[in-house]
Specification:
Helix content: 25-40%
Shape: extended
CATH superfamily of the largest domain: Pseudouridine synthase
Number of domains: 3
Number of helices: 11
CATH architecture of the largest domain: 2-Layer Sandwich
CATH topology of the largest domain: Pseudouridine synthase
Structural class: alpha+beta
Strand content: 15-25%
Number of strands: 20
Length: 562
Amino acid sequence: MDNNDQHKITYFADSVIKETTLPRRFTFPFYYEPHPLTILAATELQQYLETHTGLGHNFGLTNDKETMAIGKMFGVLVVADTEGKIGYLSAFSGKLADSNDHPKFVPPVFDMLTEDSFFLKEQEVIDSVNAQLEEVESNEDYHQLRRELEELSAQSMEEIAAFKNELKTNKENRRLRREENSTNPDPHDFEMAEADLSKQSHYDRHRLRLLTAKWKEVLEDTRTRLAQFEDRIDALRSERKERSAALQLQLFEQYLFLNKDGKSKSLQDIFSATAFGRPPAAAGECATPKLLQYAFAQGYHPLAMAEFWWGAAPRSEIRKHKQFYPACAGKCKPILAHMLEGMPLDENPFLQAAEGNSGLEIVFEDDYLLVVNKSAGLRSVPGVDISDSVYSRLKSTLANTEPLMVHRLDMGTSGLLVVAKTRGAHKHIQKQFLDRVVSKRYTALLSKAIDQTEGEISLPLCPDPFNRPRQMVCFETGKTSITKWKVVATIGEVTKVHFWPLTGRTHQLRMHAAHEMGLNAPIVGDDIYGNAGTRLYLHAAQLSFIHPKTKERISFEVAEDF
């Protein structure tokens, strides 16, 4: 291949092009099988990354502990240049070693790091605000005043509480004396004693007011001195927030994305019509928008794209070294909708309904519920664009009965699914799921051999806000997710396991299988966390729960067909 660094394009050899059928439509970027030319381009780019160690970025593939390990998404775009020659462009998401300028790779849509750019100038101002804020927040007088206020507050409460206890004792003593005085036959002596007791009571209240006033004055004086620091901190934080927001808005307007017709749209305009209302952080910095932007600017014709992960996986996500991944939905989908406007794309697989003969076997039915055996590829409930599902099929066959979905299985998962026929049955069984008294067992094929024979996985999960329905591991906001597992058999390079989910989180079994802190072995055919295949090899094989009418436990089992 001939490399033309000036134009960032690497050309394929003529022999390669003659032996390869060019794609007739551009890649559907959110679900694809890489075209042979993108596989070849990605392989060459990976060889480049392996041999060019001077990029200054720690991908986490060596024992370099001096800098933080950060894996990266890389992308390749197969294009026809202005003369019809076929080659590919390369890009990375974000920055490499805090730089956008690398000879092999296309530039960003907007380079905020160019010398004397408005971004760097304003960033210097924000950095100065941060420095002032850090100086105030680390001031020893400030911390001393905070400690002093805390100690004085505690001391005041303790002293006032002790004094109130003393007054309570005094009050009780006065009550006892009044009882004694009530037996005094001399009215004059009685009145004198009562007056003395009343005087003592007034004196006690006066002492309490003095003590309270003293502490109020001491605390207010300390708070006044502390407020001088805190007002300065609030002002600096407010200035930082306002400057950062203004800078971000200015950046959004600088990111102008082209499409094949030469029409440009700013990042702000693109995201204004979305649910976000404004661009999320780092939008426009992903590989595919960079690649398309450069291609359109140079007059190239995009033919196919692919993105792969290079380096160590982040702690929260499932990313495998050298594995291909689709473009992210949250950040890239609105941008690519504009950039790919008018371009013929491969068919969107998300709009393909399950095959007509995909099975829905009724395993059990009575007046209260059904248990069905769902085939892989059939949805549990209708989607936005596809109505065919367990729900729609049951609704068309059940006379005058609304099927009430108690739980769901992923479209790719086969197996047992319980559907209620009455509101009461639905509420009863759903509560069993919530109370975790439903017994479930799944069978799966994992993509590699497992060293252990059984165990338990506990990884808290939460949705990836920019890439639904993907899930993430998060130890701060994630929900508890627990799975027991046991190896059934090792078959060549794959392992058959049983899963017992003790919680019911979205994609729980798929995440626990694939994540490096789980089994680190994606389920075979997992097109989200592993590699796509003919199907997802995950089957809900056993289901047991209490019948809502008879109150007896009923169990069902359907063996997997793999």
